[in-house]
Write a structure and sequence with these properties.
Length: 330
Amino acid sequence: MFCEFGRALHFTVFGGGEREYAGIIIDGLPAGDYVNLFEVREFMARRTAGRSSGFTNFRAEKKDDFAVVSGLVNDTTCGAPLCAVIPRGEEADDETDAPHQDPPSLLAALCFGGGVCRQLLEKRNITVGAHIESIGQVQDKPFDPVAVSADDLRDPGRYPFPTLNFGVGETMQAQIDLVEKHGDTIGGVIEGGVIGLPGGYGGPIFDGIENALSRLIFALPGVTAVEFGAGFRAAKMKGSEHNDAFIVENGAVKTASNNAGGILGGISTGMPLLFRAAVEPPPLPPETESEDSDAEETTACTVPSLVPVVESVTAMTVLNLLLSERGPAK
């Protein structure tokens, strides 16, 4: 099983249920960029950070690890395709898993790609981040649409439960524990953001940033909706309320509000790129007649584990835009 995406930066994700490993090939990376593999491992570890607290993802797995097969010389990109392979979790069952039934391995591969792309973007003064905006009815504070900072984007990822407000994160975790105790599941919303992306990237119609990013986010298991900026709230606004008026601040042109989410007509405006992804509750397990049944254990909530994956596909999309031969839209 494999899938491909990207133009200037071409990604191939491979592996699946019947394989002993998954992996990713990134073709098109410029030569000369140092990649801190320790930081990549730390980033990938975020996907499994909450496994001991009930909000695990799909099944018990060992900590993600990887081996770089090609593309780095002394941890520096050399221009050749960067390929990494990732062993599957020890708990996976080779006899019962079909290729499309082993998403954790493929998500780990995406996180490797995202871990690399995030570093290359940071060197270009572009920061990508995400947090859990809500679990059920429990809300975290949203990113400031016009003044979200690099620290706002980075800080949630430093905690096993990635929220802006640490106290709210504890409440969300308690909510998940309560739902799990009653044999139920729950979903939530992930808010992602990008700052430092210059205006002019992307394209109209089918080449819009929303198109490219939504395609990858919708590929993640459980994602049921994606909105940018004001999103569905825009349908209830008047034009005078939704309009983002241009202003000059400290010699720079920006907008007083950011209902567009940093994108106009598929093209970046230079304002923070903001979006939200809704994640459905995991399906309930089938009823079994015996406690000794081999039925797969159900997770109560997949949202925390998906946060770094959302960051990954965002970083991969943005770096692909930057490296596109088309460059900024004219």
